[in-house]
Every structure is written in C-alpha cells, then in structure tokens.
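Running this now, will post back.
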Amino acid sequence: MNPYDILHVDKNATDKEIKESFKNLAKKNHPDKKGDESEMQKINMAYSILKDPEKRKHFDEFGNDKFNNKQDKITKNIAELLNIIIENSPSDINYFLDELRKQTVSQKEKVKNELNSKIKKIEKIRNRIIKEGENKMVLYILDDNIRQLENSLKLLNTDIGQKLQAIDIVREYDFEIDDNEPFSFSMGFSGGLNL
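Update: finished.
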C-alpha cells in the first residue's frame, strides 16, 4: 500500500494538499454516502500515515506502511538492547546478554504465574456461584476479567518472544572482553512488562 497513491498526491505534497485530498476522497467514498467501505479504510490508513510526520518519514525512508509489524518491534527491541549495552558498558557483553536473557525469561515466568494465579482465583469465585441472578452483570464482569488476563498472557508471550529474539540476534555477534572496563550489571530490558 502506497499512501501517496491512495490519496492521489505526490511525495512532495504539503500537509494542506494531503488534507484536502483526504477530505475529497472521504466525501466520495464514505459508506454513509454509499461509498466503498474498504476503500474508505485504505484512505483513512493512508491519511493516518501521511499526516503524522514520523510515520511519513518512516514510510519515505523504508517504504513500510506497517508500523506495528513484528519486524519493527524486534528492530526497536534491538535498538533498546544496544542502548542498554551502551549505558552499562559491560566488560563482557556476551555474558551480559546471556544474563539478560535469563532474567527476561525469569521475569516472563514470574508475570505468567501471577496472571495464571489471578485467572484461577476468578474462575474459583465464578465456580462458587450457586444461583445466578436475573441480571448477568456479575458473570459478565468475571468472564471479562478472565478474558483480559488471557489477552495479557498472549501479549506477554509475544512481547517477551520479541525481546528474546532481539537478544539472540545481538548474541549472534561475538564481542571482545574489555578488561579495562569495570563490570556493571543493571537491567531494564524487560521493563515493558507493566501488566
């Protein structure tokens, strides 16, 4: 998908030109005006890319309009990981990465166990219901809590999987040990686990 083509503007179009084109195309293609819904979705997506300077720059540089895809997240994790290495300046980067991997897996297991424990507690309460009331609100809320926790588990697995993949990619490189650099070890890579 090329947002410039969809909005019928050239690469050097101004923000004003992009906005005008978006408005015109939206008027023609809006489902309320008997327009094509899928075409309208493409127009909205294209506009969301071109109106945002960062997304537009990213598209112009890489031609990639999928900003939330797995590869982008892994690339961001690699950049974060390299920043952690730069900040810590460990004498043995290979050891540092191995320890970071262990801590990331350990934190994943800890959070996973906490989430599973919460799910079991909610299920236990749900199973203790003897008689349902006419209003099913209590059941809906309990079921919704379980669903949210299960989604958190899925996100956790995806997030940690991408962090581990980033560590493995950087670990493919061999780093020389710097005996002149004092060893320090401060973690922060798994900090995105605020569930």
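The helical segments are 3-6, 15-29, 37-50, 53-62, 70-88, 93-127, 137-171. More later if anyone needs it.
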